[in-house]
Write a structure and sequence with these properties.
The chain has eight helices and eleven strands. It is an alpha+beta fold and 302 residues long. It folds into two domains: 174 residues, Aminopeptidase (3-Layer(aba) Sandwich); 111 residues, Alpha-Beta Plaits, CATH 3.30.70.360. The protein has a four-stranded mixed β-sheet with strand order 2-9-3-8, with helices on both faces. The chain has a four-stranded antiparallel β-sheet with strand order 5-6-4-7. Strands 1-11-10 form a three-stranded antiparallel β-sheet. The chain is elongated. The relative contact order is 0.24.
């Protein structure tokens, strides 16, 4: 059940068209709403020849949710001043910051032997990994206890058994330097467990995923400024916001193509209670049309 108490933005959409699933599966508005907005805006630009604009490239990627959407994308071939991802929330939002993100893989290697003769010989990797996860803070640094610009360490997958067990954790923070502090926390927990379980091997491997787009957007300030202007031209007061997550725009910005994220009316993403609004999607189309005109004027002005 999608309730106004949990979704206060519904109160401003009375009389509108809300699209949901049947509650047993994802709706897929993230990112299908964005695809619909892009294609509708493109169709209207083709129909309305009087709208002056420069070259516009449409790029569709897959595997955005696991951070691989830009793996085979050649930014030089796009040949653009900046880009925009259509993967945002409610009406008039412009996301100009994302988390910086690393992946941590914690691997515990134990010694498996039949439990009937395990005394003094068995080293249970699963139990030691459980101790590792139990040592993570519960009053801070978790998605359950953080909001706004607070970062977190989030274990999301556990695999393995007695001989070898593995946990995957995502490290998130708006301050990229803070990711190193999160990694040091994991290293400290691992070091303590090594002292207490000398016959086990405990490894922590951290690899980068994406970075806060803020620094990259500073190279092309018009990307956000013109999105703000286009939102106002479409009759809305823009909200420049941050994402407690990432988009393909994070990776594109890191590759040298400044790419903020725009609203498409996605709500409760990644949940069976996901929903979208036809009116908010139409508003997003209007923003894209005004944005095309704004960049057309920039191009004409040289």
């Amino acid at each position: 059940m999608i309730r106004v108490a949990d979704n206060p933005e519904l109160a401003g959409l009375v009389g509108g068209t809300i699209i949901t699933s049947d509650g047993t599966t994802l709706l897929g508005a993230d990112d299908k709403a964005g695809v619909a907005v892009i294609m509708t805006a493109a169709a209207r630009l083709v129909e309305r020849r009087e709208v002056a604009h420069g070259p516009i490239r449409l790029v569709f990627t897959c595997d955005e949710e696991i951070g691989r959407g830009t793996e085979h994308l050649d930014v030089a071939r796009i040949d653009a001043v900046c880009g925009y991802t259509l993967d945002g929330g409610g009406r008039g939002t412009i996301d100009a910051e994302t988390f910086s993100a690393d992946l941590a893989v914690v691997t515990v290697t134990g010694i498996n032997i039949h439990p009937s003769i395990g005394r003094g010989r068995l080293v249970n990797a699963t139990k030691i990994l459980g101790e590792f996860l139990a040592a993570l803070p519960t009053d801070r640094l978790s998605p359950e206890t953080t909001a706004g610009r607070e970062g977190f360490v989030h274990p999301y997958e556990i695999t393995g058994g007695v001989a070898r067990a593995e946990a995957r954790l995502i490290l998130r923070d708006f301050d990229t330097a803070a990711l190193a502090a999160h990694a040091r926390l994991l290293d400290a927990i691992a070091a303590d467990l090594r002292r207490r379980h000398p016959r086990a091997t405990i490894d922590v491997a951290v690899s980068p995923q994406y970075r806060n787009m803020r620094e990259g957007l500073e190279r092309e300030p018009r990307a956000v400024a013109l999105a703000v202007a286009a939102t106002r031209a479409a009759g809305m007061e823009p909200t420049v916001d941050v994402i407690r997550g990432g988009t393909d725009g994070s990776l594109l910005t890191a590759l040298g193509l400044p790419t903020p994220n725009l609203s498409t009316g996605e709500h409760n993403p990644h949940s069976p209670l996901e929903w979208t609004s036809l009116e908010e999607m139409e508003a997003a189309v209007a923003v894209l049309l005004h944005l095309a005109e704004a960049w057309g004027r920039e191009r004409a002005a040289g």
